[in-house]
Amino acid sequence: MPGLAAVVIVSLGIGIGVNTAVFSWVQAMVLQPLPGVSDAAGFQLVEPRAETGSYPGVSWLEYRDLRERLRSFPDLLAFRMVPLNVGEAGRSERTYGLLVSGNYFSALGLRPALGRFLRPDEDERSGSEPVMVISHAYWQTRLGGAANVVGTIVRVNDRSLTIVGVAPERFQGTVIGLTFDVWVPATLAPELLAGSRELDDRSQRGYSIAGRLQPRTTRAQAQADLDAAMRQLAHDYPDTNGKMQGEVLSFWQAPRGPQRMLVGALAILQAVMLLLLLAVCGNTANLMLARASARYREMGVRLALGAGPWRLVRLLLTENLMLALFGAALGAVIAVWATEALRAVPMIGSVPVKFQTKVDVVGLGFAMLLGVVCGVMFGVAPAAQLAGVDPQIALRSGSRTAGRSGMRNALMAVEVGLALVVLMSAALFIRSFSETRDTDPGFRREGVLLAAYDLTGRKNADAAFSRDFTARLLGRLRSLPGVEAAAIATAVPLDIHGLPLRSFALEGRARSDAAPDRALSNLVSPGYFRTMGIPLRAGTDFVDLGDASSPPQVIVNEEFVRRFLQGAEPLGRRLESRDRRYVIAGVTDNSLNESFGERPTPVIYFSYRDRPAPAGQIHLRTRAGAELLLATGVERVVRELDPTLPVYDVRTLTDHVEKNLFLRRIPARMFVVLGPLLLVLAAIGIYAVVSYSVSRRTTEIGVRLALGATAQGVVRQIVGESLRVIGAGALVGWSVMFMIALHLLRGAVDLPVFAGVPAILLLVAALACWVPARRATRVDPMASLRQE
């Protein structure tokens, strides 16, 4: 039966293929989180955790303290992501690099492709070693793979750095999912980032630290070691470390960067895909069990000629395993295509997202293992049924034995229950994705153009220059035709970087301990809230950038007022942060900041007037749909102010928000395809079972019709018997999903999904039962009786 074999191979190929593709993504994150690094899964992260539950990173001084105090880690390394302008002024290229400790490459156990790596002594003194290491890809694509690249001097953020080495080809950095082109000593931060005080300011966090554990040291021992170190730091530095705790995490559990979005999504996706494969196996088992009913005479002859039951079991399992392995081979091809498709998906803005996913030997082994498991799963039932055949009965009755089978009914119920669970999970995920995309983020995403600039590293980019440049830039941008409002901010909501966490002390708020409160922060210019469409609920916007008479100001959101002021009047209240005092000038609505679905989080907005920054994200409000028409005007304005200053990452706010959803969009699109496919496979399985069952009941149906039963009555009986089995399986599956909704989804029961999906499945199942039943009633009763 080549048609049956084709259905089995294709359905198994799809189920195994999507599972292998997802496994390759999980493998890239968990088993091989750092491409090019041997035993990457053995690295542990040391992450401070704030009282709010967020992970703000480590300060440079804190890293040096922990490196000395944590005996569980013989060689802790540190790194921090930083955007850089590489090249001569006017011809520079925006790229991303890592500020790293001197032992970074040696602790990772890497060997350079060319030259040497940074030395441990090159992070001892601030700005003492103007050196850099470049990636293999940057060497090949930007520098032509020149053999004499070592010793080349390159301008980075308007500073001259010497290339001392090239990283290995597959190595892309130590942030999962991101790739970097430049590595420089962290002690160059004051030189490359104008005004940076991160080398001597414990409040400036953002570094990640990692290392391998000492031999025979468990993670629990390392956690105890870290707890003791954090308690000591909290005692020694209460302003920056009070109430700060720490966690030892596996590298794939990194709480910052793209992996924080990936881990949960991949875990759910892998679980649902395994359920999908289980449903496919149930469907295939039903098909093979139905097919087995036509082989009673064959098996009776084999048994009569001396074959033992176990030999029949081996024969049938071998046949099924062959089908399963063909399905696994097709699945491997599908998985290779799927992983290639993932790499082709456009990622978030200019952030260098790159997943080195591939179906390697481990992935192929996983696909073959799934094939073997599936072959055994769907082969056991028909093998057990046929191995127990009585040869005499089989030879007398042929293929048309008794028409009902409890095993077939049980498998059909299981298949329908699993199919319903997968279909409802897919529907819930798609609905969740759709609702998330349509969620009001608290700002107006349509009609805003974004573009970035960066004066960091320029010799004259002090606070006064940055403030003056921001004022002149905004003045010219607001005069562009079609611009309704303009503003500048250091961060854009829903960006992969997230917002920095800022400590503060609030007037009138008493704490039982010396630890400061913390909130997310953003640095914005006057007009930001109008440009973003974030309503001001109380107070006023920031004063003009040129106003020198007003005291320093901040604006907070409603969650800040609720959490820290318990509804008390916020306007005019003083707030202290980093040794400066501010007055709360206004209160805004809550809005999304870091990700969809996040809980309301306190936010403090500082003004560019009070804390001028050399870098910024330009925000322009215009007519929806006309955003990109302003791009050339923005570039012209910036060029008039500074011909050497590049504008990069030009995009609309709508595109920016949509790209935040790309990790959810991938499984949503998979479910859109796999859901209907599973529905079709379930219908085929039900149709095959009912069709075989009916074909074996020809005599019974002929007798009924000969005795006066109507065709409609016979059809109703056959369909009713099948639907009772199908309904029982669907009820079990529906109950499982209902319990999940109550306990895991906080009681959120989506009525269209919980009512609509079962209705569609039952309708398709009823049609799959009706077609063979209707065909069976068209036989001539006398012909069927004579045939029997």
Low-confidence stretches: 399-404
End-to-end separation: 24 Å
- Protein structure class: alpha+beta
Count of helical regions: 23
- Give the overall shape: elongated
Proportion of beta-strand residues? 15-25%
Sheet with the most strands?
A: 10 strands, mixed
The total strand number stands at 21
From the alpha-carbon coordinates, what is the Rg to the nearest angstrom? 33 Å
Oligomer: single chain
What is the mean predicted local confidence, pLDDT?
84
User: Helix amount, in percent?
Assistant: 40-55%
Which characteristics define this entry?
alpha+beta; elongated; ten-stranded mixed sheet; 21 strands; 788 residues
Descriptive report:
- The chain has 788 residues and is of the alpha+beta class.
- The longest helix has 36 residues, at 309-344.
- α14 (463-478) packs across α17 (631-641).
- The chain contains 23 helices and 21 strands.
- It is elongated.
- Strands 1, 2, 3, 4, 5, 6, 7, 8, 9 and 10 form a ten-stranded mixed β-sheet that branches. A six-stranded mixed β-barrel has the order 13-14-19-16-18-17.
- β17 and β18 (580-588) form a beta hairpin.
- The chain starts with a helix and ends with a helix.
- Mean pLDDT is 84; it is low at 399-404.
